Amino acid sequence: MFKSEVKSEIGEDISILIKLDNHPWNYLCECGDASKLTVKDIQNSNAVFISHTHIDHFANFDSVFRHQIGIQRRVVICGPKGIAEQVRNRIKSYTWNLIKKGSIIYEIRELISEEKVIIYELEPPLWDLKKINETQGNVIFKDKSFEVSAVLLNHKIPTLAYKFKENDTTKIDIQASGFKGGKWVKELKETFDKQDTEAIISIEAKDYKSESLFHLLHIQKGDSVGVIMDHAANEENHSKIKNHFFECQKVFIESFYKAEDKESAITNYHSYSTMSAKVMREAKVVEAIPVHFSRKYKEDEILEIKREFDLELKNKS
Q1: Is 157 helix (H, G, I), strand (E, B) or coil?
Q2: Which domains does the chain have, with CATH numbers?
Q3: pLDDT per residue over 267-289, tens digit each?
Q4: Burial of 217 by CB count in 10 Å (0-12 exposed, 13-18 middle, 19+ buried)?
Q5: Is-above-0.85 flag for pTM?
Q6: Burial class, 167, CB count within 10 angstroms (exposed 0-12 / middle 13-18 / buried 19+)
Q7: In the predicted model, is pLDDT for residue 317 greater than 90?
Q8: 314: which residues sit within 8 A by CB, 6+ positions away?
Q9: Among the residues of the chain, which ranges form H helices?
Q10: Residue 31's Cα: distance from chain center in Å?
């Protein structure tokens, strides 16, 4: 199961940290200037996911690489087309004569279309950008326990929305079996996953046909969490969001403006409280959380945005 935490206070830039149970690493979404993001959070991050590089989403990237220099491992950075060159330019603006090769390697992945990812590599001391691979599809990051897919939205520039999806797992009801646990459990799960109905499973000195034990097993659906940042509140974006995040367990979605400021949202290619909530409701998201509010609002106005969001989310009409 994923644990997710907004690391930014009201009035700060957006930054969200995502963790998976029994997993050694963090995953950082957005590099806004967020006071609750710690050095440990940054150093334990295995990948950074950037929606786009407007300053309120990218301003804190300098602190990220500052605290990662010297960790001596590979860190993935994901973002839209052009982010590899932007990351390189940020890093190259500093002097690195005392930093040695191998102190860190950045692997930068750009989703340049709905079906293509280009992968680059960047490392000290020269920080030369090298293209190392291309992949097909919109899965931009994959671990043995989960994967992250991305969808391109329009914010007058391309911006990425990310979905973290935990792998489905096979579970067994040991109590219902009447047996003690043992290596047979792993063997049975493997045959179930392969749908090998003829395999023989030995339990307590007796052989069983695998199919006769399949009733003890069930598929536990993996957890999911989405991060949807700046996007125009238009039909094309909404169609993509509803398709990509359908029945997602939790989604953080930008709600930049109050409903009464809808025209400002349209002008600036942002979303607003009631529209963000409506899209989440129609996507049947289990838990939708409004985030990333305009800095022009005071705390009481942000509370109003949240109330508008919640009311629309519960609207059954």
Answers
A1: coil
A2: 1-168 (3.60.15.10), 169-220 (no CATH), 231-293+301-317 (no CATH)
A3: 999 999 999 999 999 999 999 99
A4: middle
A5: yes
A6: middle
A7: no
A8: none
A9: 39-43, 55-58, 61-68, 83-92, 174-177, 183-194, 235-244, 262-267, 273-282, 299-313
A10: 13
